[in-house]
Write a structure and sequence with these properties.
Strand order of the largest sheet: 6-4-3-5-7
CATH class of one domain: Alpha Beta
CATH topology of one domain: Ribosomal Protein L30, Chain: A
CATH superfamily of one domain: Ribosomal protein L30/L7
Shape: globular
Order of helices and strands: EEEHEHEHHHEEH
Helix content: 25-40%
Radius of gyration: 27 Å
Strand content: 15-25%
Length: 194
């Protein structure tokens, strides 16, 4: 008789070691959500409701109509105009869309106070320094820093600033090489323009 051969048992490949997954971290305290603004230099995060100073650096020559409309909605329809806005996802999207024409970032209470005192106007167009006392303007600056809108305080949201005292670094490059985009602090730029 013919001898039957037994099939050789096929050895299975060894199983890959199981991946160890870390247990999800327990949240002890809810951290506040932040709104992100970014440029090529990196991303900055702003707490929701924090006040951001926005200054228009460039004019309208060759501008896309969408960008122009965005700047008009922000209230900065001319060069060297500034406004104070709250950090919300919608506003941050508008700032990113117009990043090639504006500079923005947080401003200190002292700089906001100087802006309100020297360049602020009421909704009727009267200079704020002649309509209010300096103590009232100082209190307004603290309220704006805390999250109140300029309109609720009876102040025009647009500040007409002057060109910087020593000129711009470069109107076409992002900060720190130029003047456009997000900054860690707007204090130096605003002091030069008030």
């Amino acid at each position: 008789m013919a001898e039957q051969t037994k099939p050789s048992p096929v050895k299975a490949a060894p199983a890959a070691p199981a991946k160890k997954t870390a247990a999800p971290a327990q949240k002890t305290g809810a951290a506040p959500k932040t709104t992100t603004a970014g440029t090529a230099m990196g991303r900055m995060k702003f707490a929701p409701g924090s006040t951001i100073a926005v200054v228009r650096i460039r004019g309208v020559t060759g501008m896309n109509p969408k960008r122009q409309m965005t700047l008009e909605l922000l209230g900065i329809h001319k060069s060297h105009y500034a406004t104070l806005v709250q950090a919300t996802p919608i506003i941050m999207g508008m700032l990113r869309q117009a990043k090639d024409y504006i500079s923005w970032g947080p401003a200190s209470t002292e700089v906001m106070e100087a802006m309100l005192l020297k360049r602020g106007e009421t909704l009727d167009g009267v200079k704020l320094s002649s309509a209010k006392k300096p103590e009232e303007i100082k209190a307004m600056a603290k309220e704006v820093q805390a999250g109140k809108t300029l309109k609720s305080l009876g102040v025009c949201r647009t500040f007409r600033l002057t060109p910087p005292s020593r000129g711009f670094k470069d109107r076409k490059k992002n900060y720190p090489y130029g003047d456009l985009g997000v900054r860690p602090s707007m204090d130096d730029a605003l002091k030069a323009m008030i």
